[in-house]
Amino acid sequence: MSAVEPEEHGLIRPIAAALASALGIGLIVAIFALPRPVVGLAALVAAHLEESGVRHPVTAVLLNYRGYDTLLEIAVLLLAVLGVSAFRPAGPVATYRPRPDSGPVLAALIRLIIPLIVLTAGYLLWAGAHRPGGAFQAAAVLAGGGVLLRLTGLIPSFRSPPLWLRMALFLGFDVFLIVAALPLGEGSRLLEYRAARAGIAILVVESALTLSIAAILVTLFVGAAPSRIRNKRSTESARLPQNDRAGQP
Amino acid sequence: MIGGGLIYAIAGAILFSLGLYGLVVHPHLMRKLIAFNITGSGVFLVLVGLPQRMAGTPPDRVSEALVLTGIVVAVSATAFGLALVRRFYDLTGKTRLPNDPRPEP
Amino acid sequence: MPGETVDILLAAILIWIAWRTEITADLFKAVVLLIIFGLLMTLAWVRLNAPDIALAETAIGTGLTGALLLDAVAHITGKRRRRLGRSDRS
Q1: Cystine design at A153: which of A89, A99, A196, C67 (Cβ 3.0–4.6 Å)?
Q2: CA B68 to CA C54: how far, in whole Å?
Q3: What is the ipTM of this complex?
Q4: Residue A39 falls within a domain, yes or no?
């Protein structure tokens, strides 16, 4: 059964398998042993849905009831982008050039699909108020379009994000924080929107979040790739000295 | 009455332990990341399946929102981990941690 | 009961695909199996009455994670081939 590489220490695998199986069985037993009455927050969510500003319960939970979680989640995304941007190698950056393996089919597909992607993202963002959709789904579709553009070279690789991209990265968090902090000026607590303003607040926050999360996801994809050096001379100079020592088999 | 969520909750528990096994056993760093993703998916299944384990209960919107947050955080953690792995590979040429006793293939 | 049959079948396939992902020796194959796993998770989310999660899982969990992993696999295996074979393939 060892389709994976053989290892010197043969004890890791059976011990890990035994422990993982014990954990799995224990979890299943715990699932069955849970008490019958399910204390559900579903009733509470449904009861206050009119005051939350949107008609879709998941969006209401994400951006109103548990808005704090979403705010911190955006902060975590920003931390990940900062971390990924910190790992760029110090070599030269590839110039703006379409990658040679993007065939004509992909180029034609890009022309058709990118407007559809923008349209779908806009619809998902607007539809999140009363049916499944919302900021994350719209941002994910936009990020997919961004990845497509990156694969055909229409988005160049960068060593560190340009200024406008950095502003787009932080826009969502800033807007969310400002909108969340507005009730503080009226004497309420953070993120306590008034019922009349909740719909507008959620719409503004969701729009900024869509742009920002899409920018973050695309930067995560682009930023994880080091610069593709095209000509051989710069390849030799860009390689670190440890690479040559460690790379010899 | 058994609801549909119970089956997925059990599957989530099994996926969690499978992913944990892969995380421990595989020496290759990227395989660890893949196993981490499987673990995360198992956790999400448990989170959403558990409130529906009785037939007739409505789906729990709070846990759905939590899982939505979790998916986004998982992809950012995967991206960060991949950046680490790529940088480590660029600097040392290896895809295993330095104190791993198992030899490179 | 057709609903529960679909659930059991889908859960079994999910576990089997995850098992194959762990066992396979090829890194590229493992990544492709993880993408398939993500697509099946989308079906599971639909069965669990969570369409929001299904949308997000398809785009983020499968699409973006798959793209990131494939890029990393190409980077790691491509560079190794380039270094060992001194080929001019970029």
Answers
A1: A99
A2: 9
A3: 0.90
A4: no
